[in-house]
């Protein structure tokens, strides 16, 4: 089984059906929970990363409240999104998980680590920054700008938001967007505009929020990003590594916000080395 044809399942979370996909052998009691980016449904998970991580571990992605097939209204705060994610994990019956969060998912990962530390064994935070981090309050403006730019050029906004505009970046963007189209059947539902706007409000609030005490995070944490992230400036990744005591850092050369997609093979190798440690 590979990600492009894995079945979509659902679980009741406090009266709401949360939709998810689970891939990989259950060779551990501790699955990987993947937390996705702004405006992302399950169809926005990079198949190379999902398939790669699933070679050694079971990985689960899901639509949080108001996203894709999961009904309801998207929360306006990252903290509430984290509470929903925790409720989803518990509804599946897990008492301990590893987390991989990209962008908004990296914000949610931090909140889960702070809200319920005993739930998490190890965590990977990519393309993200801490609350109040440099430039995060500008994500809304930048996102709308690149959506408009995409409309003018007939390109997906992620072309501009995630990748550098040089030869390597353009090639990587094209390859990434083609991978997202590999699933032909049983694709996820589109995200509603209102819930997308609520996500943006949550990110904006996160950017204005007071800094949190990340020194209380005791789990091993791997932070990663491209060296030229224009959505969440790469300095935020270095800052996370300094503020989280037991952390490691990877910075991908000649890459932007979507560095883990541009360097998906290298990321999978590093992630598995990190997550498969006891």
Q: CATH superfamily, please?
A: Alpha/Beta hydrolase fold, catalytic domain
The proportion of strand residues reads 15-25%
Mean of all residue-level pLDDT scores: 96
How many distinct beta strands?
A: 8
- The Cα radius of gyration reads 17 Å
- Overall structural class, as computed from helix and strand content, comes to alpha/beta
**CATH topology group:** Rossmann fold
Cα(first) to Cα(last) distance is: 26 Å
Query: How many structural domains does the protein architecture include?
Result: 1
CATH architectural arrangement: 3-Layer(aba) Sandwich
- The percent of residues in helical segments reads 25-40%
Number of helical segments?
A: 10
Provide the low-confidence segments as ranges: none
CATH class: Alpha Beta
Q: Quick one: biggest sheet?
A: 8 strands, mixed
What is the string of helix and strand elements?
EEEHEHEHEHHHHEHEHH
Describe the strand arrangement of the main beta sheet, using strand numbers: 1-2-4-3-5-6-7-8
Shape: globular
Keywords: Hydrolase
Protein name: Alpha/beta hydrolase
InterPro entries: AB_hydrolase, AB_hydrolase_1, AB_hydrolase_fold
Pfam family, one: Abhydrolase_1
């Amino acid at each position: 089984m590979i990600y492009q044809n894995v079945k979509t399942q659902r679980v009741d979370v406090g009266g709401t059906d949360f939709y998810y996909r689970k891939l990989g052998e259950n060779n551990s009691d501790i699955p990987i929970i993947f937390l996705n980016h702004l405006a992302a449904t399950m169809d926005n998970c990079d198949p190379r990363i999902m398939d790669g991580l699933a070679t050694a571990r079971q990985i689960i992605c899901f639509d949080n409240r108001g996203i894709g097939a999961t009904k309801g209204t998207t929360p306006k705060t990252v903290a509430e999104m984290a509470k929903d994610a925790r409720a989803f994990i518990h509804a599946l019956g897990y008492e301990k998980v590893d987390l991989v969060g990209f962008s908004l998912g990296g914000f949610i990962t931090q909140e889960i680590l702070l809200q319920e530390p005993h739930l998490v064994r190890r965590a990977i935070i990519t393309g993200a920054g801490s609350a109040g981090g440099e430039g995060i309050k500008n994500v809304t403006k930048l996102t709308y700008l690149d959506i408009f730019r995409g409309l003018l050029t007939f390109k997906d906004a992620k072309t501009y938001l995630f990748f550098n505009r040089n030869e390597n970046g353009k090639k990587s963007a094209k390859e990434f967007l083609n991978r997202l189209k590999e699933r032909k059947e049983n694709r996820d539902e589109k995200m509603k505009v209102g819930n997308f706007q609520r996500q943006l409000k949550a990110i904006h609030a996160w950017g204005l929020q007071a800094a949190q005490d990340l020194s209380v995070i005791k789990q091993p944490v791997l932070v990663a990003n491209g060296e030229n992230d224009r959505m969440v400036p790469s300095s935020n990744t270095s800052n996370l590594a300094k503020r989280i005591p037991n952390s490691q850092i990877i910075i991908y050369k000649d890459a932007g916000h979507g560095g883990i997609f541009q360097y998906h093979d290298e990321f999978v190798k590093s992630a598995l080395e990190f997550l498969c440690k006891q």
